[in-house]
Design a protein that fits this description.
Layout lengths: L11 H33 L24 H14 L3 H10 L14 H23 L1
Helix pairs in contact: 1-2, 2-3
Length: 133
């Protein structure tokens, strides 16, 4: 049964140890994501035919090479993207760090924005009072 008897607050040393574990796990995760992003960037710069300057040489030259699992996944997704799979192309784009911005920043003088907001607020108040009668 839940209650005060079941609650346990870690000691400062335990909290520090748990924080250290989290920091190490975060570092591993960030390195793995960075490695996948770099793999995709390298693969995206690779020429379609032999004669390139990348580690694999070309997509054709990558066949039969000893790749990591991440590189093999990246190559599979890249091939699917080249063949026209839009979802694979989005995956490659996003994973390689080329995702378009999802936010819009609006810049306007503060005085103009405040005046426009007040005018809008007055309109909403006027509509609210008109609807009551």
């Amino acid at each position: 049964m839940a209650g005060r008897d079941n609650l346990r607050v870690p000691t400062p040393d335990e909290a520090r140890a748990n924080g250290r574990k989290g920091g190490r796990a975060s570092g591993r995760s960030r390195r793995a994501k960075r490695d996948m992003r770099e793999t995709f960037r390298e693969l995206l710069d690779m020429p379609m035919r032999p004669g390139g300057m990348t580690g694999f040489g070309s997509m054709e030259g990558a066949e039969g090479k000893n790749m990591t699992v991440g590189e093999a996944i990246a190559m599979t997704m890249l091939r699917a993207a080249v063949e026209g799979d839009v979802r694979a192309a989005e995956f490659v784009r996003d994973t390689s760090g080329q995702r378009p911005s999802q936010s819009v920043e609006v810049k306007a003088p503060a005085r103009d924005a405040a005046d426009a907001f007040m005018a809008l607020l007055d309109e909403v108040r006027a509509e609210a009072t008109d609807g009551d009668g």
